[in-house]
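JOB MANIFEST
job_type = single_chain_structure
chain_count = 1
residues = 242
[input]
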Amino acid sequence: FLMELLRFATAGSVDDGKSTLLGRLLHEAGAVYDDHLRSLRGSPERQVDYSWVTDGLKAEREQGITIDVAYRYLRLGDRIIIFADAPGHEQYTRNMATAASKAEIALLLVDVTKGPLPQTHRHAYIAWLFGVRQFIVAVNKMDLVGFEEPAFRRTEKVMGEYMSRLGSCSLVCVPTAAPEGHNLHRRSTLTPWFHGESVRGVLEGMACGGDGEGSLRFAVQGALRGTNGGRRIAGRVLRGTA
């Protein structure tokens, strides 16, 4: 039978927990092998660093940051999800733009103790410019505020107001605590006031766009300099017509 394909990119400011959330999500879905998991732990006494599931470069692990875009695959029922874990540092914004150019859904991470930052807004705007109209906002690190509802609602309100100024799009906010997996695969008992779906539940309910249908989807693969000094964007048409 025909499998549905869903392209998905993480976004948000540095240290908001993008790689950790994605690593934990993949682990709970059974997409991380046991030997890989043991290598992430290092020793039985150490806790697993889930950010290392996607941060495989030596420089990334030494500095504790994401530099390049990492792609991972997950099968959920009759659909395959391609995850693109993008960096949050401002100097690597171009890498995030590459990931967004191929995505149908953007997962925006927001540290609830800091709220949306300029890079959060920048990533949301870039994703929107590339045609992404489905957004999930993971209001992360809820454990640092005792899983209190008012802290979540403040961030939800700010992000809702910002996204409404961009234009037409769907937005779902989920309170999360990535290392422990709260509200990733199932609803957490620590957020009884939250009646929405987990991140996985939201993903399973979002619409997939066919490769040959819908608006133009052009994956940016490089910028070329012409003989006249101008620049040209090079890439591949994933769906639609130019």
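[summary]
The two ends are 29 Å apart (CA to CA).
The CA atoms of residues 101 and 130 lie 5 Å apart.
exit_status = 0
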